[in-house]
Amino acid sequence: MLKYARSLLDSVLGRKRALDEEPESSGSANEDYSNKKLKVEDDTKMVYKVYISNIPTCTSSAIKKYLADKGIPRISKSPQWDYAIATYKSKEEAEQAMKNVEGQKFKNKVLKASIQESTEEDHRNRFINKANKKKGKKNAEEDADPNLTPAERLANQVTPLHKMPYDEQLKKKQRTGEHHLLNFKRELNKLQLSGPERHQINWAKQPGLPCEVLEIIASPEEEGYRTKCEFTIGKNFDGEATVGFLLGLFRLGIVAVLEPSDLKNIPISAKKIAKAMQDYVRASDYPVYDREAKEGVWRTLMTKTQRTGDIMIVVQIKSEGLGDDKVDELKKDLIDYWTVRVKDQDIEVTTLLFQEWDGVSNGLTDRAPTQVLYGDGYIYEELLGCRFRISSSAFFQVNTPGAELLYSKCAEWCNLGDGRKTTLLDICCGTGTIGITMAKSVDQANAERNGIKNVKYYANKVEDRLDVFRRKGDEEIVAVLDPPRNGVHASVIRAIREAEHIDKLIYISCDAKQAAPNFLTLCRPQSQRVKGLPFKPVRAVSVDLFPHSEPSELMIEFARVRPEEPEE
Ligand SMILES: C[S@@+](CC[C@H](N)C(=O)[O-])C[C@H]1O[C@@H](n2cnc3c(N)ncnc32)[C@H](O)[C@@H]1O
């Protein structure tokens, strides 16, 4: 009988998601929406930055309050900076701000102030350069190129490989996968080992790659493959309400939102929905949310557009100050818009959801409920002949045909279903796609007969159910671990090692650099702390689920190193 361990039901119930970076700026509460400083109409206009220095580091909220009292309500200040920056559009205002603080004492330090002037365009380009350097982008120079249109800059930011032919992208990703494997081997060899167990990593002493590396598996679709998109609602450089992506990093000062029309990874259906939302917001009486002033109404639009044709739309607003009647009116109008008025644009919404979020974090959040305005709050996707129900917060691979190739390869490596009694542990299973598709494809008759009843789910964090690994029957155990970006808690890897009946672990990683500590714990020689025989990598393959972007999935098969087997 196959049995599947489900570690977390968050994809069904709705749990954690990464939140955008928080802004460092403080804002005044009552500004006119039409007069935002993010509106850039003339690139030759000047910007005046007041640098206030000699501030103790790690002092953000205190200095913000202090400067606000001195008539400087908006500053940029990071805890590690010993300075703050206030930006003005007029020289007079900047000079006044400088006068207000120059020579003043804050926490026993005498503040200094100076003004730096530049054009709007220089100001913007500097932020773009900074953002790119921070991301280690090689094309930072290119992005600073004044000949690049903002749309080209956005494409470089969101899909940095978009100008590279796809076969070149694949070669690059193949090399990246191999580089991660070599690094992992290098780190393993760096361990200071003195005990007799050090021979357990003799395999890592061999030159070259630590295991067989197969040729990268390409995405079946190169463009428009992203089923899930989260768009920001803000203003473009002309101050018009726009639904798209932020150009650059907000905390570095880039606040313009650009339409996704030129982005290769966004499907036409999602672009169409974003445009329809933009039309709606532009015609609305309510302003878009300003991330700096933390005012306004329209915040985020999320779309999930599946291969089945199902469409989920989630609209997030800041409702503070609107009052219940206005919010109800707005919800009714949204329902009418998305279910009736957009029909002529060939948009057939399956379910519409709504989130009210007054907090400062950007993007959809698990800290506020999501209300279902239309439909039942779910959509469906088909994958390897199985049908999955997806909620608004569910994790589901964003490239369905690519995920099919990944999971098929995983099933091949698991090598279940040739009559042997096997238990598959699908660790961090989310919606359960890996286990369920394998149950079907591996043992079709059995799956049909049982209606995939041979599955058992544990809706917990995997680290809270380590007992599952200890359960031992007479069957073979194969484990698949498909964790979040940063891997799993070391206790999970230690528990897998201690479960000596587990001989094979297929580790799927979307960020092999972050998962490297897990690989090390899995393969390092036995010690007081890390018990159980180690594993070693036997084969690996990259699977590209994100054409035109940097990441790809790296799947590694690890096998238990048994003493009777030569480790070399
Ligand atoms: C990369 S996804 C893989 C999901 C699954 N294989 C699928 O395709 O739907 C990682 C999953 O692990 C879940 N997760 C995150 N932290 C976890 C934890 N501590 N224990 C168990 N699962 C966790 C996430 O919610 C997410 O669903």
From TrEMBL:
The active site is at C510, C510 (nucleophile). GO terms for biological process: methylation; RNA processing. Residues 48-118 form the RRM domain. GO terms for molecular function: RNA binding; RNA methyltransferase activity. Keywords: Methyltransferase, RNA-binding, S-adenosyl-L-methionine, Transferase. Residues 117-148 are annotated as: Disordered. The keyword RNA-binding applies. S-adenosyl-L-methionine binds at Q397, D443, D482. The keyword S-adenosyl-L-methionine applies. Transmembrane segments: none annotated. Belongs to the class I-like SAM-binding methyltransferase superfamily. RNA M5U methyltransferase family. This is RRM domain-containing protein. It comes from Absidia glauca.
